[in-house]
Amino acid sequence: MLKINNLHAGVEDKEILKGINLEVKPGEVHAIMGPNGSGKSTLASVIAGNENFEITKGTVSLDGDELNELAPEERAHKGIFLSFQYPVEIPGVTVTNFMKTAINETRKAQGLEEMPANEMLKKIREKSELLEIDRKFLSRSLNEGFSGGEKKRNEIFQMAMLEPRLAILDETDSGLDIDALRIVANGVNKLKNKDNAVIVITHYQRLLDYIVPDYVHVLFNGKIVKSGGKELATDLEEKGYDWIKQEAEV
Which of the residues 98, 149, 151, 186 has an alpha carbon 20 to 30 A from that of 89? Predict the structure, then answer.
């Protein structure tokens, strides 16, 4: 579904990703771990089309279509969703209006009519209940005055509403207490199915106790230097990254 081939990318003249190869199939959960500065958030940004980063070599494809030249909104319409590490506040735009606009823009790009209001309300009700979101929350300005946990839960609510083909969660667990972490993880698990896929970027194994990955990849110095099953995350929790760095530098 997602295929990344020899991806090199950076910002201005600094190369950050130095030859990433990754394949993600429908129904899979991939975790990407690694020390600070290894390129994890850059990889998420490049897949989503952040224009601050330039691809200098290689390709990113979704369902066989190359994405390199597509704008972020075109990638979103194809089914790519990025949950931000630091979600931005948008005063004056309610959560509900934001979601209506996002869904209808995607439908328009796919040649569909706008979603009828009653269907939209039903979907909002279902997904907010799924994620244990207070209905009052939906009439507030997007992320304005939200706690860290509320912002992250709102990101997963957006994911639930948009039903992407590929969801990328960039350190969704940072700043969450254990209850918020559980709710966010439960939401992700309920949204997983055989037709979509999830990439989880995290520092900590604790999130992977709740969202169990099929594959774990370790990113170091702009390259995937080790891949394995969920037990690799446990090894990293116990031993840290020094042994990975030593292996990578041999």
Answer: 186
